[in-house]
Amino acid sequence: MHLLKTLCQLPAPSGEEATMTRFLLDYVRQHSPSWHQPPLVVHDEARFQDCLLLVFGQPRTAVFAHLDSIGFTVRYGRELVPIGGPECAAGYKLVGQDAQGEIACTLTVEPAADDAETEVLGYEFSRDIEPGSSLTFACDFRETETTVQSCYLDNRLGVWAALRLAETLEHGIIAFSCWEEHGGGSVPYLARFIYETYGVRQALICDITWVTEGVKAGHGCVISLRDSLIPRRAYVERIRAIARAAGIAHQVEVEGIGGSDAKDLQRSDIPWDWCFVGAPEDNVHTPDEIVAKADIASMLALYQELMRQL
Amino acid sequence: MHLLKTLCQLPAPSGEEATMTRFLLDYVRQHSPSWHQPPLVVHDEARFQDCLLLVFGQPRTAVFAHLDSIGFTVRYGRELVPIGGPECAAGYKLVGQDAQGEIACTLTVEPAADDAETEVLGYEFSRDIEPGSSLTFACDFRETETTVQSCYLDNRLGVWAALRLAETLEHGIIAFSCWEEHGGGSVPYLARFIYETYGVRQALICDITWVTEGVKAGHGCVISLRDSLIPRRAYVERIRAIARAAGIAHQVEVEGIGGSDAKDLQRSDIPWDWCFVGAPEDNVHTPDEIVAKADIASMLALYQELMRQL
Amino acid sequence: MHLLKTLCQLPAPSGEEATMTRFLLDYVRQHSPSWHQPPLVVHDEARFQDCLLLVFGQPRTAVFAHLDSIGFTVRYGRELVPIGGPECAAGYKLVGQDAQGEIACTLTVEPAADDAETEVLGYEFSRDIEPGSSLTFACDFRETETTVQSCYLDNRLGVWAALRLAETLEHGIIAFSCWEEHGGGSVPYLARFIYETYGVRQALICDITWVTEGVKAGHGCVISLRDSLIPRRAYVERIRAIARAAGIAHQVEVEGIGGSDAKDLQRSDIPWDWCFVGAPEDNVHTPDEIVAKADIASMLALYQELMRQL
After folding, report:
1. What is the pLDDT of residues A78-105, one digit of tens each?
2. Under an 8 A CB cutoff, do A271 and B46 touch?
3. Residues of B with CB below 8 A from C131's CB?
4. Is the pTM of this model over 0.90?
5. What are the alphabetically sorted keywords of the record (chains A, B, C) (predicted)?
6. How far is the C-alpha of B133 from the C-alpha of B97, rounded, in Å?
7. Which residue, of C112, C137, C162, is where some domain finishes?
8. How close, in Å, is residue B20 to chain A by CA atoms?
9. Count of CB atoms within 10 A of residue A87's CB?
10. N or C: which end of chain A has fewer CB within 10 A?
11. B96 and B33 share a domain?
12. Which CATH number goes with the domain that contains A112?
């Protein structure tokens, strides 16, 4: 879990993923020689901004894992505006930096003066922070025999699973995307490149979902039948059949809300089939996201099997 | 109206349109030899998923009719989540099937425990239904001298009108789309294929709209000047002029809400001109949608004229 | 400011930009011979609807300025529905025309019968107006030594700045877009054409933003670090560095709401870098929008510098 801890500590809120991208490029350069087969590394800022693609063999399916995280942007007068949809509780530790140096401050949450139902976010710190600075949760990485807990398991755990998948992958594409937490914006061009270059139109969304009354921690990786969007049923059923036949622990999710990089696939002018497949977490979008190790293991096993069979 | 009844009875909620697609393929195979001219049938799951295109002559205009309907997905603990935006009244009859067999159950609607303004949807049935199963309204097709009434006239009546239009069509494309009721997702690639292959960038949205204080049942097919989106005025005015000159009964609609497959055309990277043209219905998105036969007749007549002149 | 006044007076609500387009075509034809270099004028209704592109030299960056304005569409029974998001106060003067002639009427605002929080918009006029007619604010253009005030400075001032920029531009594209106030719809195809024809993927959004507690009238043109969307930070920082080095008065904006033509760039399948750069106004989306002349001057100066250096 050392790699996962490192990933969780790297700041990369939506729009500022470059730090994560550089880390991954280094990681792949260093480790891919020992993988089953080294991938083609596609990275070109002019064409893919801060995204990164790993292409293995003759790909039939693409795995999308987003690099970015939720966070906060400093506004004026000590106010903060959210990046994506963070849970906000007074006292959360936030970190960042501006021209004056390192920042380690505390989140404040107060009702708006004119509307008790709206909250105003702010920070407590020894000085004013330069407007436009980004803040992310301070990482407190915790591990037990059965769980990992940290901010940003969504989606550093998805990135981690994709990197572990890469170790043995024969055929497939791993696409590391940007801006997922804040409305998307990179999957459209990644998807177009992948389709036009490789003819691939099958996708798996390698991301973290929610523990709910129907999805239990420790009961296996989730195959999502729907969230706010509905994937084509025929594709999802193929995935369920593969999971069942392989005897890999898994559970199905049925939600009416929530979304993922799949939104950009569904809206694209390419006939993507897609399915969200990922471990569930509790304490979603807080500094205390927690995932059962059993679900991480089944997530990786399921991805390995799916990439062989789809 | 036998064909319309059959169409209304086929289950095809968003994401599971394949049953409808297979029916249409059979129907076209069987009936197109007797049409004015047989179309080119474009259907290829790898490129168009469950969509279907009929191409006639040298097309200048494309007609989009969506195949899918609203419905419900079974969640956990006897809860339902909506597919699209169904009206929900306790007691509506729902049908479907899961691994244990046929389902005929009843919709329940209750206030949420924690928020009286939110409704929780559920079902009453003799057994639990497998999570992820889809349910649709049970079809009770009713016909009088002047009206038809059923669930899913939106948009099986649009599909019906498109099939009747096909009987005499010389030049044009009929595109049967998916996912319209649940945010879209197929029109982007259909539109791209149509534009790139045929250079067509004029569209008519063949769908059913609402009876309102300004749109009366029996007063003719609706030409929509706007809903939540605003089409280019110049194109809409051409359509109005054709309708007037042909002496076909019609009325104009002006709304600030609502949408259609046109959303995906408006957002696309192709300069589509589009206009919604369709009969109005009352009891929208219930099992009791009702349309005046006079408006069906004027809808078909208007499409025939528009496809000749646009 | 004579040109700006003319632009503010021309009616061009979203979907009906053609009047503005014709004016610009005439203006460019008349004035471009005296510009530093005449641009290639790209205008073809079949490919670009009512949009217009001016291409100078070897472009590296595209400037997007939207032509359309907010307004109202006449519904039934003397009701109005908004085009875009106008501020609505009873008594605002509205103008338009229908088949019966010129219209000069007054906006009415009343609580909905069934919901005190919803407003019903209407008009007072000596006769009924034909449903579907568009109304826009009556233009009362006011100028002082330090300010200009009128309806539709958003975005006729952006259009004006783009035309003044054109006078000295060596390399770059100016794209006049449609539908920005009502959800967009032209930038996707403009962006695609620009990228595929010229390889350009850097954008500046030439539009008007808001005076807020952090953005003051008269303190210089705004460089927006974010609104509801977050641009790639690396690009925005390049723009800030150019502004600082050139010593041009400017201020930064950090918001969690609001949007612009950038939405369509962010969602596109092209890796656009974009940044909103424009003067701030007070009384946003009213007939009394007001902008400091100093901010107009710094907006133009900043665009000139950015187009040289980006």
Report:
1. 999 999 999 999 999 999 999 999 999 9
2. yes
3. 214, 225, 252, 254
4. yes
5. Aminopeptidase, Hydrolase, Metal-binding, Protease
6. 7
7. C137
8. 14
9. 15
10. N
11. no
12. 2.40.30.40
